[in-house]
Write a structure and sequence with these properties.
The complex is a heterodimer of chains A (149) and B (406).
Chain A (H helix, E strand, L loop, with lengths): L2 H4 L2 H7 L13 E7 L4 E10 L2 E10 L2 H14 L4 H15 L6 H4 L15 H18 L10
Antiparallel strand pairs in A: 1-2, 2-3
Chain B lengths: L2 H4 L14 E2 L10 H14 L9 H21 L6 E4 L2 H16 L5 E5 L8 H10 L2 E5 L9 H7 L4 E7 L11 H11 L2 E5 L11 H4 L3 E5 L10 E5 L1 H6 L10 E5 L2 E4 L13 H17 L1 H20 L4 E3 L11 E6 L4 H9 L3 E2 L1 E3 L4 H7 L4 E5 L6 H17 L5
Parallel strand pairs in B: 1-13, 3-4, 3-5, 5-6, 6-7
Antiparallel strand pairs in B: 2-8, 7-8, 9-10, 11-12, 12-15, 14-15
Helix pairs in contact in B: 2-10, 3-10, 4-5, 11-14, 12-14
The chains are: A alpha+beta (149), B alpha/beta (406).
Chain lengths: 149, 406
């Protein structure tokens, strides 16, 4: 395993980047995403109006991969239509699964392409996709699960 | 590679092109050849369904099952009739929760347990509390990770009917004051359920001397195959408990509208058992006997002391629980400032070092400590000083990889 490919400058910097780590004013959707086996836990907030993701932010805690991934995803989808965002989600999942490796296509993912190294690391895939799955579920209208005893 | 390591086939195969340095022994241990061979021999030579066939092979399978029970009972200083084979610690604790907790606890009763419990010794009690109306009361450790006598006094009261506690925390690695817990439980008439998952691999467990009512452990954390473990229960309690799982082999006779159950412990062992695993567990106990507790403990304490001393010398490291090697059971949980433990574990993995990162199935303890996760290195008999030194030098590199200086 090449640590350089995984912990590249974009990921290391974005894992601590503050710009998307915030609550969203007048959010229309808030959804928690959790990796139960490891405790990565984020809350994604979106303001979606007339089919456009006007604003997005996240709060939470997790490894550098999950946190950088959330921030890079928000950079990518903010201001896009829901439809465009869904296409980008599928492209990202394709990259992480190793199914899409074509560089020209992956350019659409902008800086999120820095997470491609994860495609060779099954143990960290769930960290990389946490935010993206949460966004997918949020756009699908999934409701938060209630805590219970 | 030393002679002991050579007995573990997995340690002889490179991992990521490097020698495997396996420091996730608190999750599960690797298996020696003697255990692998015992399981294979059982299936090659003695396999049939125990307690069923009258043919010679069936008798050998029954003997394998019952001889393993005698060996495991002796390991815990229990009588064989008080020893129930389970899949693992979780199943043992669930058996107690369902067959004792649901049957004998009621609204207003209290279940006392430590906030440091593994989810296996916590979630079953949440379910018992919900079903019976009993209340969960938590012990909280002090800043050193220990339970004080005052805390036990405060929480074990006339309302306490059951105390569930791990003999050794799988995160902090410290031994719980079991004698103090049992003394107080006796005084108020509560039963004590001891989770030995993390203690049985590292120290002799004598259920009679401890005078606990139930004790559960997993084979796979002490060199045995996965899928086999045991539960000890005091005879007088087991005899008044209803079965947990029901079906084949746990009955005396069955009629259309009625049933009578087998004697203990068979009434708690429904269905075909994991006899291959039980034989493997017996072999694992023989393997530990061949080393002896004195050697096992001296070795693991020496490695723990070396690791704690080394970690103390590295800046930006937090170790959870008092760093006293003499009182630690081969477990060190830690974090590197500014770095999530998953990243720490991935960076160590690149050097062939396997450590656990996450909440260690102890989320309430994580919340109590004010963290979401930590990294954990844990030792077994086959680890060496060289392993510890490789671990320490890799930990030293973590912050640099994450762009946090040298």
């Amino acid at each position: 395993m090449e640590l350089n490919a995984l912990y590249n400058q974009i990921i290391v910097e974005n894992s601590r980047a503050p710009q998307n780590r915030r609550k969203v004013e007048d959010a229309t959707i808030a959804l928690e995403g959790v990796n139960p086996s490891c405790g990565d836990d984020i809350v994604l907030e979106l303001r979606v109006k007339e089919g456009v993701i006007e604003d997005a932010g996240f709060t939470g805690d997790g490894c550098a991969i999950s946190q950088a991934s959330a921030s890079l995803m928000i950079d990518l989808v903010k201001g896009r239509t829901v439809e465009d965002a869904r296409e980008l989600l599928h492209l990202f999942f394709g990259m992480i699964k190793g199914e899409v490796a074509d560089e020209t296509r992956l350019e659409e993912l902008e800086d999120a392409v820095a997470l491609q190294g994860v495609s060779h690391m099954p143990a960290r895939v769930k960290c990389a996709v946490l935010a993206w799955h949460t966004l997918e579920e949020a756009l699908d209208g999934k409701q938060p699960q209630e805590l219970r005893l | 590679m030393n002679e002991l390591q050579k007995q573990f086939p997995i340690l002889t195969v490179p991992e990521n092109g490097k020698r495997l340095i396996y420091l996730d022994n608190a999750a599960t241990t690797q298996k020696p050849l003697s255990v692998l061979k015992a399981v294979e021999d059982y299936y090659r030579q003695d396999n049939a369904n125990p307690h069923r066939g009258v043919y010679e092979l069936g008798v050998r399978a029954t003997d394998a099952h019952e001889n393993a029970r005698v060996a495991v009972a002796r390991f815990l200083h229990a009588a064989p009739e008080e020893l129930i084979f389970t899949q693992n610690t979780s199943e043992g604790l669930n058996l107690v929760a369902y067959s004792y907790g649901l049957e004998f606890l009621k609204a207003g009763d209290e279940i006392a347990l430590s906030v440091a419990e593994h989810h296996s010794n916590l979630v079953p009690w949440q379910r018992v509390a919900k079903a019976t109306g009993a209340k969960l009361v938590y012990f909280y450790p002090g800043p050193d990770g220990r339970l004080s006598e005052e805390e036990l006094d405060r929480k074990i009261t006339d309302r306490t009917r059951l105390v569930a506690i791990a003999q050794v925390s799988n995160v902090l690695g410290l031994e719980a004051p079991v004698a103090s817990v049992v003394r107080r439980a006796r005084a108020v008439g509560a039963v004590v359920v001891l989770d030995c998952a993390q203690s049985a691999p590292h120290l002799p467990v004598d259920v009679k001397a401890l005078d606990v009512d139930f004790a559960a452990f997993s084979g796979h954390k002490l060199y045995a195959p996965m899928g086999v473990g045991a539960l000890y229960g005091k005879k007088a309690l087991l005899e008044k408990m209803p079965p947990f799982l029901s079906g084949g082999d746990m009955i005396a006779s069955v009629h259309e509208q009625s049933v009578s159950y087998a004697e203990i412990p068979r009434c708690f062992e429904a269905g075909t058992r994991n006899v291959g695993g039980e034989v493997g567990l017996e072999a694992a106990i023989r393997f530990m006997d061949s080393l002896g507790w004195e050697q096992i403990q001296a070795h693991e304490k020496a490695l723990t002391a070396r690791a704690l001393k080394g970690l103390a010398a590295i800046p930006h490291i937090t170790v959870y629980g008092e760093p006293v090697p003499e009182e630690r059971c081969g477990v060190i949980s830690f974090n590197v400032d500014g770095v999530h433990p998953h990243d720490t574990a991935t960076i160590l993995d690149a050097s062939g070092i396997a450590v656990r990162a996450g909440h260690h199935c102890a989320q309430p303890l994580m919340e109590f400590l004010g963290i979401t996760a930590c990294a954990r290195a844990s030792f077994a008999v086959y680890n060496t000083e060289e392993d510890v030194d490789a671990f320490l030098s890799s930990v030293e590199q973590v912050r640099r990889w994450m762009g946090l200086g040298t």
